[in-house]
Design goal:
alpha/beta, binds xanthosine-5'-monophosphate, 546 residues, Rossmann fold, 34% helix
Length: 546
């Protein structure tokens, strides 16, 4: 068990994972648990601090999510956020009532900077509010440490008991000094030393994997995505050739992607492991011929993957472990961590364990958030183009070609997408050079892993999409090229800004960039004579076109 751990108790708030991520960014390890977790279990984990999240309930209503007053008497510092703040006061004898109006959005905040929670925070700052209920009477012994115009208790504390309550949301970026407040809580008030770092995680994991696997054999389905690539890198460093990675090229990957994955993980690459690339393009194209219904296509691609993998696994024979690139949000979203329901199960390529002869599953990234996986990847020396890859759906280009998938259409969308990605990357890089300091802007030489990470993930133009790609519409239209009439396909460009991929807005990619992409696609990609830009939000649209 990790010595220094903070526990985030989830009351069903939409930002539960964000709270945990922010704590991790303070180099403090934390885990999310449901509010239903009993006190003895919490005590047994011996946390250095406890954070109560927001949630949809009203604590004065019958059946509302709640906690025992004993939680506040363990001698462990507790920070309540939003609903958690109200609940702390309610349970300890204060009062919470419904306000006449909801306080919502960016709000001016006055803080008492003599409080340990607000050390180094400006007296007049901004916070993100989202609440109807408010603390109308603090619990005995509490004192106000922050206010807004409409909220008399924006934060309060009972210092001698190490209890702190914040009505607003320090975890969201709209509270610019929120990270500092969380840092003050976990590092100063809870006294965590900040020993959660990705370089030590990598070293510790390598040791733990060696211990667990012994001389056993491990099999991993490598997709080339961030998670499975980092899992492969970590396992390879730990056990070398005891690891076999099967990489299925289904012919629906982006341009050159199969070769890029092979260059890193294949023979002659930087990792010591058995690499098996299955070129299954023909099989997939044959199966997909004549099929245009999106869900049917998805099903065929998923099933065929299992079949190909099963054949390979049979050749290898029994293995001791099947490795999977499960990450912490998968654990939380599958209902094992906090309160949130299963959201994206339909997207997971499930079923592998049923088809492989193995004794145990090994999930070396199970404790990590996505950005931590990326940092671990950088620590392992995995190239940046793999580490910072944007999400790519399992069925690949199969769901970015509307209607029937053919080899010719795959080529068209690969080329168009490549141009689009190249131009976006170029524009983003130019922005970095113009807007970042010399050290970050011009050269990556000598940057630490954390600096490389910040440069790629955090410093980007405001229009930078979180996911972007070209798709092939099934529409052909008339055009003119030179003196000739054409009748070719239309390509659609998609680019979205999103945090959770559940909702998204179309990104405002500069018009000049889009124009360059359009003219390059029409000039360089045969079979395309028209380019559209998709402005649809999600909802009502989805991010992918099928
Ligand atoms: P949608 O299109 O549902 O996409 O708005 C949300 C996110 O999920 C990805 N996506 C998929 N991922 N298998 C996957 O592994 C799928 O079938 C699939 N469909 C969508 C999509 O790329 C986006 O990031």
């Amino acid at each position: 068990m990790r010595e220094e751990k903070v526990i985030v108790i989830d009351f069903g708030g939409q930002y539960n994972q964000l709270v945990a991520r922010r704590v991790r960014e303070c180099n403090v390890y934390c885990e999310i648990y449901s509010y239903k977790t009993d006190l003895a279990t919490i005590k047994a984990m011996n946390p250095k601090g406890i954070i109560l999240t927001g949630g949809p309930s009203s604590c004065y209503e019958e059946g509302a999510a709640t906690c025992s007053d004993e939680l506040f008497k363990l001698g462990i510092p507790v920070l309540g956020l939003c609903y958690g703040a109200q609940l702390m006061n309610w349970v300890l004898g204060g009062n919470v009532e419904r306000a006449s109006a909801r306080e919502y959005g960016k709000t001016d905040l006055k803080v008492d900077s003599s409080s340990a929670l607000f050390e180094g925070v400006k007296e007049n700052t901004t916070c993100w509010m989202s609440h109807f209920d408010y603390i109308s009477k603090m619990a005995p012994g509490f004192k106000v440490i922050a206010t807004t115009d409409n909220c008399p208790v924006a934060a309060c504390e009972k210092k001698e008991a190490n209890l702190y309550a914040i009505q607003f949301h320090p975890e969201v970026l709209h509270t610019p000094e929120g990270s500092k407040m969380l840092y003050n809580f976990v590092r100063n008030i809870c006294g965590c030393s900040g020993d959660w770092r990705m370089d030590t995680f990598v070293e510790d994991s390598i040791r733990a994997i060696r211990e667990k696997v012994g001389s056993g054999k491990v099999l991993l389905a490598l997709s080339g995505g961030v998670d499975s690539s980092v899992a492969a890198g970590l396992l390879s460093r730990a056990i070398g050739k005891q690891l076999t990675c099967v990489f299925v090229d289904h012919g629906l990957l982006r341009k050159d992607e199969g070769d890029e994955v092979e260059a890193v993980f294949g023979n002659g690459g930087q990792f010591d492991l058995n690499f098996i690339r299955v070129n299954a393009q023909e099989r997939y194209y044959n199966k997909l011929a004549g099929v245009s219904e999106p869900e049917r296509k998805r099903k065929i691609i998923g099933e065929e993957f299992i079949r190909v993998f099963e054949e390979e696994a049979r050749k290898i024979g029994a293995v001791d472990f099947l490795a999977q690139g499960t990450i912490y949000p998968d654990v939380v979203e599958s209902g094992l961590g906090g309160e949130s329901a299963v959201i994206k199960s339909h997207h997971n390529v499930g079923g592998l364990p049923d088809f492989v002869d193995f004794k145990e599953i090994i999930e070396p990234l199970r404790d990590l958030f996505k950005d931590e996986v990326r940092k671990a990847g950088l620590e392992l020396g995995i190239p940046e183009h793999l580490v910072f890859r944007q999400p790519f759906p399992g069925p690949g280009l199969g769901i970015r070609i509307i209607g029937e998938v053919t080899e010719e259409k795959v080529k068209i969308v690969q080329e168009a997408d490549f141009i689009y990605r190249e131009e976006i990357a170029k524009a983003a890089e130019e922005w970095k050079k113009a807007n970042l300091s010399d050290r970050f802007g011009e050269s990556k030489e000598g940057l630490t892993v954390d600096q490389i990470f910040s440069r790629e993930r955090e410093f980007n133009p405001s229009w930078m999409p979180d996911q972007y790609f070209a798709a092939l519409t099934n529409m052909r239209s008339v055009g003119v090229m030179g003196d000739e009439r054409t009748y070719d396909y239309a390509v659609a460009l998609r680019a979205v800004r999103t945090v959770d991929f559940m909702t998204a807005e179309s990104a405002e990619v500069p018009f000049s960039v889009l124009q360059t992409v359009m003219s390059r696609i029409i000039n360089e990609v045969r079979g395309v004579n028209r380019v559209f830009y998709d402005l649809t939000s999600k909802p009502p649209g989805t991010i992918e076109m099928e």
